[in-house]
Amino acid sequence: MYLNFVDIVSLILLVLGIVTIVIGKIKSRKVMLYIGKACLIIIFLIWLTILTIGLSEEDPNKNLNEVNNIIKESFPEDNTIEPQDVTDEILSDEFKYLDGIIDNIDDNYIYFLKDNSEQYCIKKNAFSYKNGRTSKDMNISDVKIGDYLVNYENQIIIYRNISGDELNQELLYNLTLTEDERLMGTNIVDIENINITSNNTAIVKIKYGDIIGDELTNETFETMVEFNSNTKYYSKSNHINSVNDLEEARHDMNSIVLDRNTINKKNPAIVIIFDSSDN
Questions:
Q1: 120 — phi, psi (to 5°)?
Q2: Residue 57 and residue 148: Cα distance in Å, rounded?
Q3: How far apart, in whole angstroms, are the C-alpha atoms of residue 202 and residue 241?
Q4: How large is the average pLDDT for residues 1-16?
Q5: Does the residue 79 lie in any domain?
Q6: Which DSSP symbol is given to 252?
Q7: CB distance 252 to 246 below 8 Å
Q8: Conformation bin of residue 41: beta by default, left when phi > 0, alpha when psi is -120 to 50
Q9: Which of 111, 127, 161 is the last residue of a domain?
Q10: Residue numbers of the domain that contains 230
Q11: Which of 5, 160, 183, 211 is the most exposed place for a label (fewest CB within 10 A)?
Q12: Average predicted confidence (pLDDT) for the chain
């Protein structure tokens, strides 16, 4: 109601002032000109008073806070933490084990995140690189953003961020590596189906996934393999000694070594070593 009353009074004074000034000019009467100007001055003083009262009632820190917010939005704080260069620590064996997902590569450094929080970097040309699944040498140009990096014995192990048949081929090759050829970890296979064809031979369906678990993918694959009289069996309790014992190993932690010359063939790959936890 207060504002409505002020609006009405202001409008009346404005009309009165304009009309009085116009009439005063037409009839050349100075008194009317003065009255008209007085009406306009009164309007100005009323609104100046209202504005002053309004500002005095506001939070004195409000305007300052608004200015600060505008400054912060225009110039946001840079909370970026510089990546820690761990090149020397890895080369000196101070860091026995450090791993993470590569999130950037530039001309000089490879950057990687550990546990999606701690960022590190290494000098690209200070290390040799190996494929973690195949144990083969890698060219630095083949290392990509998204790959999984692990330091091991002063060298960098790379698990490529791949999928589908490309991943399956690396994992199949990994199944051909002996203990001495493996860089880190052991393949784990699940026994899905066993078809014993003779006293010493069985065709077995196995299931396997990435040797680093689900760090990059939870994709799994299946393939048929052949156990025969040349397969060597190892188990903790020495209970797994032939194809007739494979059923007992279904729920154990099992790893195998395949004959490299028999993978990716029409017939099942030949198992030369079968190792069971035999729990």
A1: -125, 165
A2: 60
A3: 13
A4: 65
A5: no
A6: S
A7: no
A8: alpha
A9: 161
A10: 166-276
A11: 5
A12: 84
